[in-house]
Structure formats: structure tokens, C-alpha cells
Design goal:
By secondary structure, the chain is mainly α. It has helices spanning about 1-25, 30-35, 40-50, 75-90, 105-120, 130-140, 170, 175-184; strands spanning about 145-150, 155-160. The structure holds zinc ion. Zinc ion binds next to helix 7.
Length: about 180
């Protein structure tokens, strides 16, 4: 039967997404909002994950989600990683105004972006909830915006009130130069 098939697929997607979010240590409130699962079902998923992977512990965050835009610009490494994450979000169309996408597919696209970001950094400094906050802040453009590094043209995350973007972390710290020299 078509209808129950659809419902089954949707349920499956919901659980898969919840597991993905649990692994990324998303907050329970985020998991609930994105999957529509009840707190009780989410608790059971945590328990079944813990039982199936005894050596791996995932933290369960219950407090408030991050709200500090300045966090992403607080040091060169974070500026670099924020710019990189922003570029991935941009490529996957996550900074556009949410189209007719339903929550489940938008959420899995965001997970894809976050997973791509984690693969690119040996020590990712931006947790899942911060990444989601960055995505949200870049869409809203009230506190943070995007610009181009005046030296290399690379993407930078900048405060919305700034008139001109600063150089990216790589140019500021001369990391870009040796690479350019090698190419010459
Ligand atoms: Zn640059």
C-alpha cells in the first residue's frame, strides 16, 4: 500500500536523521524540532546507541543553544574554519532562503554540509550546534555576513556592520604565500 509505504519511508528517514544528530551531539531540543520525535523516543535512541557501541560515548546536550556571533571571529583558526564551513553551506545552497524543502531533507542536507566540514579539518573547532547557529546567522545577515578577502578573493565571514572585509586567516598569517611560491 502506497500510503503506508510513504509513512514507513518517512519514519525511517526520521530515525536515520535522529541517529545522525545524536552522533553529532546535537541538542535534544534540536533533534526533537528536526525529526518530530518525542523526547521519550529520542531517549530510547540514545540508549540503544549506547548499548550497540559500548566504547563510544556521545554527550547529550540539554542546555541552551549557542547565541554568540562573535565566537566565529574570536581567533584566526575559528575564522578560517568558519569561512570554510560557510563556503560548504553556500555550495549546498543552505544559505539561500529555505525553499519548498521539507524539514527532513533540509536537515539531512545540513548534516551533509557539517560532515563535509569535519572531514576537511583534523581538529574541527566548530561543534554541530555552533555550525547550525552560523548557518542561521548567515541567512539572517543581522550580525554576520560574507565577504571576499581583499588579498586572495577567498570567502570570509565578517561582522555585518564592518564596511570592508579583513584579509582571510591564511593571508593574514602568510600561509598563502609559500603555496603561491610553489606554483610559480
Ligand atoms: Zn586571503
Amino acid at each position: 500500500m502506497r500510503i503506508s509505504d510513504d509513512r514507513y519511508t518517512k519514519d525511517r528517514l526520521r530515525y536515520d536523521l535522529a541517529m545522525r544528530l545524536i552522533l553529532h551531539e546535537a541538542r535534544t531540543s534540536t533533534i526533537r524540532a528536526w525529526t518530530g520525535l518525542s523526547d521519550d523516543r529520542i531517549r530510547k535512541l540514545y540508549r540503544s546507541y549506547a548499548a550497540s557501541e559500548p566504547g563510544h560515548s556521545v554527550k547529550r546536550h540539554r542546555g541552551k543553544a549557542p547565541r554568540q556571533a562573535a565566537y566565529f571571529l574570536s581567533n584566526p583558526e575559528l575564522r578560517l574554519q568558519s569561512a570554510n564551513l560557510a563556503a560548504i553551506l553556500c555550495q549546498l545552497g543552505l544559505l539561500d532562503h529555505p525553499a519548498g524543502d521539507d524539514t527532513l531533507s533540509a536537515a539531512s542536507r545540513f548534516c551533509e554540509a557539517y560532515e563535509a566540514f569535519r572531514r576537511q579539518h583534523a581538529e574541527p573547532r566548530i561543534g554541530f550546534e555552533h555550525a547550525w547557529f552560523l548557518c542561521h546567522a548567515l541567512r539572517r545577515r543581522r550580525e554576520l555576513g560574507l565577504g571576499e578577502c581583499p588579498a586572495c578573493g577567498g570567502l570570509v565571514v565578517m561582522p555585518s556592520f564592518a564596511l570592508h572585509p579583513q584579509s582571510c586567516s591564511l593571508c593574514t598569517h602568510g600561509i598563502r604565500e609559500p603555496e603561491a611560491a610553489l606554483m610559480a
